[in-house]
Amino acid sequence: MKAITLIPAAQALAEIESALDRIDPARAGLDAPSRLALVRSSRRIRARVEALTATLIGEADQANASLIAAGTPLKSWLGMGETLSRREASAAVGRARVLAEHPLIGEAATAGRIGIGQAQAIGRVLQGLAPQLSAQQQAAAEQVMVGLASHLDSEQLAKAAPLVLAEVAPSDAETLLETKLQREAEQAHRQRSLRWFTDAGSIRFEGSLPRAEGERLITLVNLHAESLRRTAIEARDPLATPVTQEQRRADAFLAMLLSVEKSKPIPGVGGARVIVKLDYQHLLGAAAAAGILSEDQPISAAELRQLCCDAELIPAVLGEAGEVLDVGRSSRLVTAPIRTALILRDGGCVFPGCRLRPELCEAHHIIPWWDGGNTALSNLVLLCHTHHALVEPAKYGLRDQWQVQLDATGKPEFIAPRRCRSQLATTESSSAVDPAPSLRGRAQPNPEQPGAPPRQVA
Question: Is residue 28 part of a domain?
Fold first, then answer.
């Protein structure tokens, strides 16, 4: 391997800026694979430059450079020479401190091994674990997190505290995790707030809710918004004004205000439901001490007890005969038990890269109902309406499109269109290429129990 000659940061930045000035803007003749290669390359370079910028800001902050040279805090100094708002400048300094306080993270980000979003997620997890770990354990936790970043994105890293504790404090991992969750829940309760501001003809809201209550609000708004969307589609009014997803959520929130106790987003169901995937006897005997995973992060046992008091708790019994999950050809529409099983298995839209929540998803028949497909868990996947349209086959159509199937373990996987496979074969002609490459969908290993099936809460 050729040795790399290191140069000062000032020289490197000057050369980068000079290279940007010399880029030829004529790219009309590029083919699609070349354009995508440029996108990947430029994003990788941007991430490394962004990480270097954060590192330099963090080093300047630690050295009090702005106070010495300009007599002002760094966030104020940033705003003096750039068109940055006070909030943007404060955020830049905050991001930089994560890399300055954790050199291993900063080195990995600057080298391009992890992205700046992953670095921030790692920093937040380490900050949450720090009060419970010794200095040696904190250093080990940082190494574990950087290693996990090789195959986990920022959202998955944000939920990786159980994995880290299992590595650095295996004997006390469960107790430490419960303590961490309880401390976060208490802090969230102290930080709860709701503010509003008059802005011309509108009122703007801003606030913070504890996670459990916030999840319930998000679910209710999303359910109402999806109901409004489907109603609009069924009406098919050609004069209707198109609305954005945010506008639809606002309409849903207003509808909730007008019918607080009477609203039922799903026929026959009064409110948001919590689905806990536990053995039935365990559920009966130890529900008060059990922890569950939300869409984004686990919650403490105390919060679970509160949810059990207010919400409809639905046990998904494992290893015992339960509700019928296969109605065959007797019904095209998915029943409530099948929908519950779909949520537990898929957790939301399973199309690669999509993370839409389950209440915004539709049940898709892999073998269409009109082609003899059964309404059964083995023939269904959850898809958001955008990707449902992308996958749904036309009865008499011949379009080149995505396909979905279940693998040998019952997990969804996708087959790319022929046009995408041909481009892949062209760009990777020097190596053997699967003639029908498949992509895994949403389901991810449970970070709390490696090797266990996913646990989801809707």
Answer: no
Q: Are residues 105 and 121 in the same domain?
A: yes
Residue 9 lies in a domain: no
How high is the pLDDT of residue 11? 94
SS (H, E, C) the chain: CCCCCCCCHHHHHHHHHHHHHCCCCCCCCCCHHHHHHHHHHHHHHHHHHHHHHHHHHHHHHHCCHHHHHHCCCHHHHHHHHCCCCHHHHHHHHHHHHHHHHCHHHHHHHHCCCCCHHHHHHHHHHHHHHHHHCCHHHHHHHHHHHHHHCCCCCHHHHCCCHHHHHHHHCHHHHHHHHHHHHHHHHHHHHHCCEEEEEEECCEEEEEEECCHHHHHHHHHHHHHHHHHHHHHHHHHCCCCCCCCCHHHHHHHHHHHHHHCCCCCCCECCECCCEEEECCCHHHHHHHHHHCCCECCCCECCHHHHHHHHHHCEEEECCCCCCCCCCECCCCCCCCCHHHHHHHHHHHCCCCCCCCCCCHHHEEEEECCCHHHCCCCEHHHEEEEEHHHHHHHCCCCCCCCCCCEEEECCCCCEEEECCHHHHHHHHHHCCCCCCCCCCEEECCCCCCCCCCCCCCCCCC
- The tens digit of pLDDT for each residue in 143-184 reads 999 999 999 999 899 889 999 999 999 988 888 888 888 888
Final residue in a domain of this structure, among 159, 175, 191: 175
Q: How confident is the model at residue 442 (pLDDT cuts 50, 70, 90)?
A: low
Q: What is the average pLDDT score of the chain?
A: 76
Say yes or no: 146 and 88 in one domain.
Answer: yes
Same domain membership, residue 163 and residue 55: yes
Mean predicted confidence (pLDDT) in 385-412: 78
Looking at the fold, whether 166 and 54 belong to one and the same domain comes out as yes
Residue 1 has a pLDDT of: 55
56 and 154 co-located in one domain: yes
Per the structure, the count of domains in the chain is 4
Interval 250-271: pLDDT, tens: 887 877 776 665 545 444 344 4
Whether 450 is covered by a domain: the verdict is: no
Q: Are residues 343 and 252 in the same domain?
A: no
| Residue 23 falls inside a structural domain | no
pLDDT digits (tens, 9 = 90+) for 59-80: 999 999 999 998 888 988 988 8
The pLDDT of residue 446 is 39
pLDDT given for residue 439 in this prediction: 63
Per the structure, the complete domain to which residue 282 belongs is given by 272-322
